[in-house]
Amino acid sequence: MKVPFVDLHAQYLRIKAEVDSAIADVIAKSSYIRGAHVEGFETEWARTLGAKHCVSCANGTDALYIAMRALGVKGGDEVITTAHSWISTSETITQAGGKVVFCDTDPETFTIDPSIIESKITARTVGIIPVHLYGQAADMDAIMEVARRHNLWLIEDCAQAHLARYKGRLVGTFGDIATFSFYPGKNLGAYGDAGCVVTNDDRLADWMATFARHGGKGEHVMQGVNSRMDGLQGAILHVKLPFLTSWTE
What we know:
The protein is of the alpha/beta class. It is built from 10 helices and 11 strands. The strands form 3 sheets. The chain has a 7-stranded mixed beta sheet with strand order 1-9-8-5-4-2-3, sandwiched between helices. Strand 2, helix 5 (about 90-95) and strand 3 form a beta-alpha-beta unit. The protein is globular, with a radius of gyration of 18 Å. The chain starts with 7 loop residues before the first helix and ends with a helix.
């Protein structure tokens, strides 16, 4: 018997009525880009994590790029990250203008080894991006201590860690910014690409929201990018979110 690794259709059938109703509402209101469902999901996801702000975007890769642009990464800046991750983590460092500095991983968790990070720091180092991988949380106490000691910013890549915890605290609430992917195969997955950035910093949240939406709405205050969550994905994620805890268990 063939057993699929992931059966997204089976998941859909369990919540078909709720999903179909949400999609119909988006179509009825022609709310295809952002809209009430997206805003509702942003509010609920921030509340779920215990974070102040959630800014949705088109995908988890964009989320990393937007976060680094918000933190001012520029040419020549070095960013330390794990040597074991999906390519989005490193490619967005390069896209933002930085230089990737790989750090080896802990053999038990496959996440970045904090005991090696300090040896990678140079005068050009500006930040660290740990990745919480396979639901395993990186050792945030040790990583945060290194970041504080060297005055480095910290982005948590939570693309594979929805509701993962570190010492009882949800990941995505430790660093300056956290990024999430809602790719269909994730624990909390949309029916297409979607992502978000999460932060407790008002200024960073405002900058990232503006940058991700062409640098403004009507009045453009900067040259941004086009990275908005569409209404259908927001509606589906909003429907799925109440089920996430039981699915995770």
